Amino acid sequence: MTGAVRLEPVDEQNLEPLLSVAVAEAEPADVMPPVAAPAGWSHARREAFREFHRASFGGLDAATRTAMYAIIAGGEVVGMIRMTRRDEPDVVEVGMWLGRSARGQGIGAAALRELLNLAAAAGMRVVVADTTPENRGALSVLEKCGAKLREDGDRVHAEIHLDATPPAL
């Protein structure tokens, strides 16, 4: 990995670069909820991507209860990481995606560590995630950041307690 990894709240300034990375290096299903639109990155799907991200501009205390951050590595937008309030007090769920060219370089773990700091600063005590056993990249990032993993059928649930000592870098 070259250069520092940092997070910037998703806003109008970085939304188009984020969409460009998604279109060039990810499948729509990997970066946004499903929408009724033609396959691939159609005009309707691009608009839905923009609206999905704009809905979370208000952060954890807004209607979506979600804070989204562009992941910046080497000065470029390479993906997105988010945290969403859960119904349990002081618990957020994390989700992340990286463009294909940014995977396997330690960027995901660095971004998650930054998000854990932001979650702790927001008063959260626990960060959870949900993925599949086949998503080896996500599982590796979660383990590197101290998550306790529990497999349940075709899902893997992860939990990170923010009062625990983080693993060494």
TrEMBL record:
For this chain, one GO molecular function annotation is: acyltransferase activity, transferring groups other than amino-acyl groups
Name the domain of life. Answer: Bacteria
Q: Which InterPro entries match?
A: Acyl_CoA_acyltransferase (IPR016181), GNAT_dom (IPR000182), N-acetyltransferase (IPR051531)
Domain N-acetyltransferase positions: 5-169
Pfam families reported in the protein's UniProt record: Acetyltransf_3
Give the protein name, as stated in the record.
Answer: GCN5 family acetyltransferase
